[in-house]
Amino acid sequence: MAKNQKKQVSEVEVINVGQIATSGNEQNNETVEDRVQFEIGKFNFVDSEIAKMKEEFKDLEIKGLDDKEGIAKVADALKIVSSKRTGIESKRTELKDFYLNTGRGIDAEAKRIQALIAEVENPLKEKKNAIDLQIKQAKEEEEARLQKVLDDKVQALKDAGIVFDGAFYSIGDSISVDLATINGLDEESFNKLLEAVKKEKGRFDEIERLKELHNERKEQILPFWSFLTSEMHSVDFSQMTDTSFINLFYEAKDAKEKFDKIQADQEAEAEKQIQERKVLNFEKRSFRFEKIGFDLNEFGDVFFMNQSGQILVKKEQLENLPNEDFEKLFDEKSNLKISFDDSAKVVDEAKKKKLQQDAEDKIQAEKDKVFNERLSSRETSFKSLGFTRIEGNLIYEDFKINLEELGAMEESEFGVLFSMATKRKAEIDAQKALAEEVVRLAKLPEFEKVKRYCEEILNIQSPSLNSEEAIKEFNLLFGEIKRSVEKTLSNLKTI
Length: 495
Fold this sequence. Notes:
4 domains; mainly alpha; three-stranded antiparallel β-sheet; disordered N terminus
């Protein structure tokens, strides 16, 4: 079958177009459906036979591995049906080969003829394409030139101040044109439009300048607005001369400064009265609470605390509450304190003693802490003077201080003692220094001793004299003494 197919393809390849056309004309009255029905009739198989097989074989069953009869019947039926299917496939291939080979021959001949036609068509197409390209380029160049002219016009209008709103190019209420109108204007008409735009832009610029000047001046004077007359609130400040506006500005400024000073003085006086009232309220009200057993903390609050709880009255309440509200508060806190006191009385006595002892221990510990910290600080102060700790005492030469007494004494006593110690140390140090100086001087050469003595003589404070004769005589005396000193020192250098 394959060999026959190859032979048919070879024969189809030499069929010319005339032959194909003649073959087609012979079948002009035949439809595709007619041809299909004619060819499939060659299958020699109809739907009724399929229905018959379907009916004949539908009840076949295999009841299990041992149903040999059922297996044989199903196998025989499968062979029959399979042979029908494969027979149909073989016939389909056979019938289709003729038409496939015919189509291949038609395609080959059509390609050959198209190639011959292309030899004539392509040169013509190239010439047409070349001139079409030139026409297109010339058209595009002209369109570009016209577009540039239009763009230049639009840009000139924009530079002059016109604005595009999405549909029209406008400035003010009098000038509004669309793009088509601009494009249709000749040079003279366009120049008139351009000049009109420039003139309108200048008018708007002047309006804007005056508006900005008004706003600028209004912003300057706005801090003093309330000190202007009501008529001035509606004035166009741009119409005022610089001198007029400056005078107006400083008049309003001076008025505000005077007003601010008066207001500041009033506010200061009011604040002073408020503060005085606060101080008076605090002193009177805190004293009332203190009289019934409340204490005052470092923040100015009054409080009461026992085993039953704590009561707190803030300093702000003492200062600011109206009298009626304070009286209510005082009664409330007083009654609450009485309640706390009553509750505390029923506490177990042993617990009270323990709490008391703990409190005393705590107080003593705090006292000890304070004592030790105070003693340590004071000991450090004396050690900075040069004192040394020896067997519970601080000692500097013959000055001795007991540490227990030092820690226990009051600040004023400590200040006196420290001052005495500082003074005594200075005296001791001065005596030691003097003694050392005496020793040092004793070791000096005789020239240095005499020189030192003479310098002390010359450095003696001169007497206060009023008489010119006395001053003259004293100066002569001092000159003689100075010359004698210089001569004595000069002679000693040679010894």
